[in-house]
Amino acid sequence: MDTRRRRSDRHKRRPRKRKKLFVSFLLLFSLLFISTAAFAVFQYELGKNNAQQNLTETNDSDETLEDETEVHEFQSKEPENNEPINVLLIGVDTAEDEPARTDTIMVAQYDPKNGDAKLASIMRDTYVEIPGYRDNKINASFFLGGPDLLRETIEHNFGLDLHYYAMVNFDGFVEVVDTIAPKGIEVDVEDRMYYQSGSTVIDFEPGTQVLNGQQALNYVRFRSDANNDFGRVERQQEMLTLLKDELLTVSGLTRVPRLIGSVEPYLDTNIKTTRMLSLGRDFILNPVDDVQTLRIPVKDGYSDQHYSHAGAVLELDFEKNKEAIHSFFSNESKGFANDSTTEDDEDM
């Protein structure tokens, strides 16, 4: 009789132990979640405050780029049915008392479901139809109508839907590099790079170099060689790939919230902060293994022309380039991406 009673008592005690283990696990998980969220918020605010302090010191005022930035119209639609996200990336030179100019135009595609990432660069001298205006270089559309006319021009000429835009100036690029790679980013300089104009000096010797943010900006902007803008586009894509690789290190992943905070004061975008943080989370959960790249115009898809109102331009074979960009973003073919960054620059 006593034996039965003891067995019955043991069976009663087991559920209590399991319940205690479950509660302990739940409390530990909650603590980890709260700690992670607090760390992310702290890093985000720290990055944002540091960036705003740098802006204040640079401008010698209490105004930040957020205060000075005009709200731009961008008539786009939200991604549907978990489709990949297409973002128009615009690099601008905001010289004082002059309209902003763009010498970097890219379309980035990111698929949060599987971590696939693609990057297409459209060269600024590409000659296109600009809706409502005379045909001109594609960067003229930005000068004439900002991000939305640039979006409309890309959609009109290439049939590519764009969901968001992100526009950053040169100071923002420097901040991004210094945040992702505080000890510098390592690049392999193939040939001597030298340029001087006034106080601006770009001077890199061949070989492995470790560049800080300002030096990385000089590296991607350099075009005083035989490859001109073609070489610059290639270096821009190379730098973004290197930064992606640095971000995917263990230490780099912890900097994602701080990176978003650091770039936000320099960033003009229609992507909401909550959406950026969500994409940052997706980036951590589904890291990008490789970034496929494409350059427009593609190899043998253009000719050099000159127009009195536009100067030297790249006249496109639109059928070939439109096919390339659609194949690239729809996963139908990867051949164009390889063709666009290899031997065609040797004739420049």
CATH topology: Aminopeptidase
Percentage of β-strand residues: 15-25%
- Give the helix proportion (percent range): 40-55%
Please list the strands of the largest sheet in the order they lie side by side: 11-6-1-2-3-12
Describe the protein's topology.
Layout: H1 2-59, H2 65-68, E1 85-93, E2 101-111, E3 116-122, E4 126-128, E5 136-137, H3 138-158, E6 164-169, H4 170-180, E7 185-189, E8 193-197, E9 200-204, E10 207-211, H5 213-221, H6 228-247, H7 250-253, H8 256-263, E11 267-269, H9 273-285, E12 291-296, E13 302-307, E14 311-316, H10 318-329, H11 335-339
Parallel strand pairs: 1-6, 3-12, 4-14
Antiparallel strand pairs: 1-2, 2-3, 4-5, 6-11, 7-10, 8-9, 13-14
From the structure above, extract its key features.
348 residues; alpha+beta; six-stranded mixed sheet; 47% helix
Can you put this structure into words, describing what you see?
By secondary structure, the chain is an alpha+beta fold. The protein has one domain (35-347): LCP protein (Aminopeptidase). It has eleven helices and 14 strands. The strands form four sheets. It has a six-stranded mixed sheet, with helices on both faces. Strands 5-4-14-13 form a four-stranded mixed sheet. A two-stranded antiparallel ribbon has the order 7-10. The longest helix is centred in the N-terminal third of the chain and has 58 residues, at 2-59. The model is unreliable at 29-44, 61-69 and 333-348 (pLDDT under 50).
